[in-house]
Model the fold of this input.
Amino acid sequence: MPFLQALLNGILVGGFYGFMVLGFSIIWGVMGIINLAHGEYVMVGAYFAWALFRAMGIDPFVSALLVFPVMFVVGYVLQWLLINRVVERPHLISLLLNFGLSISIANVYKLIYTADYRSVTVPYSGSFELAGFTLPTIKTAIFFAALAIMLALHLFLQHTRLGKAIRAAAQNKEAAKMVGMDIHRVYAATAGICIGLTAMAGAMVAPIQPISPFMGPLFTVKAFAITALGGLGRIPGALLGGLILGIVETLLTIYVPGVGAKVGTAVSFILLVFVLVTRPQGLLSGLRPVEEGA
Amino acid sequence: MTDVAARPTPSPQVPEQAPLLEIEDVYAGYGGDDILQGISMEVYPGEIVCVIGPNGAGKSTVFKAVYGFVNIRKGRVRFDGQEITHARPQEVIQAGIAMVPQLPSIFPQMTVYENLEMGLFLERDKRKIVERIEYVLELFPRLEERRKVMAGALSGGERRMLEIGRALLIQPKMLLMDEPSAGLAPLVTRTIFQNIQRLNREIGLTVLMIEQNVRQGLEASHRGYVLELGRNSYQGPAQELLHNPEVRRAFLGGR
Done:
């Protein structure tokens, strides 16, 4: 059953994609900001895991837990000092600001770590058999970790005071101000959580992804494609979009001869263009114009 | 139009007493020329007062001046014996004035109950939050029935009730309502006004509202103020205004 095996591989990748995109999708949904530096935070998380692994042999999954609080603070401060200043201005300004940030981050990392590709080789990089399927150990672990984190995020958004404030700010900014929310603090916390989660995804993917300062943009494009497929700001939508991208990528790589892994990376571009041409509002009408929600 | 006597006739329901809200000769605007050019108004405890007037008369600006959203250049605002002329919005809320704005202020993808929770966002005492929400849900049986429904799935009238209910959570002494009938069908508008009157009777809620829907607004009110070009033009008991030939000609399409 090679098809089912391929499908399974796609689902495993897709679960990771659904998790990787959350930060991008929520920042867009809550603040109307398109975070072009999204992929750079994946990269930062990957380097974090690589550095800790090399220096102390710390497992990337442990690094993922460690990188969250660090990048939460970074995201909070960046939002507070920089992005909150332009959040009410036309989108082009925040877009350019994040574009500038993405270039700066990538080049600072190039200065520190050079442009050489790095890798993290964990001892459990093999695979195991289950019910006739071959499951790559790392990807399976990432998949379930991603689902667990999505569940945790869902519970956080539904049941905590801050989570409810984030949802409220996304749904009606003026009303959120009216009931006494400090909208800029809500935004800063949102950015902290989103960037922390994105870096977590980067740390987890470190063992299966060549790490370089310029790995970011590909993740940003994938985030765009997943958001176009699954919609904005909702966890189930992110998971759905991630699964579609993961499955399409994997199946294409396996079943279209000659293109192999090279087109695999172009699939997200192709999907994105296809969705935007046929359904500019997104596959599930989730790509609402940013300003309208206010 | 001629000026009517400065002293308003007290409503039949309201005994002679000190006004709850007193707006005295207020001049205010958005930085350029004053929009309000000497507005005066009084609202007595237990009254429903309706402010009418053509577009640009300064109706909404009066509310913004009370709430601290525009700067008052001259004149005074007192509420419940306290000077709030230059108070910030947060202080106005604490003084006991709640506001229901004209634009939708619900959170559509949160339940009715969660929307009410958000109305007490600054309150940390969980028991108090639950108590107040239950109190409001008792006042609005329709909301009680729909407490777990997403607010976005409510009808226009139910949404407006949710907004009113949420404003009542802070147990205000007075409610400012900017066009409670905006965007609602006439029958729904009637229900909303009936609810405002019911709250006025049941919990003695004092209401100051702006209305474009002059007839229904005045019919639901004890007294009314007519504003024009930032000045007081007419004032008096609502019934009297409804029968005033000038008011009828200007706002009710009558002769």
Notes: The first helix of chain B runs from residue 59 to 67. The mean pLDDT of chain B is 87. Chain B has ten helices and ten strands.
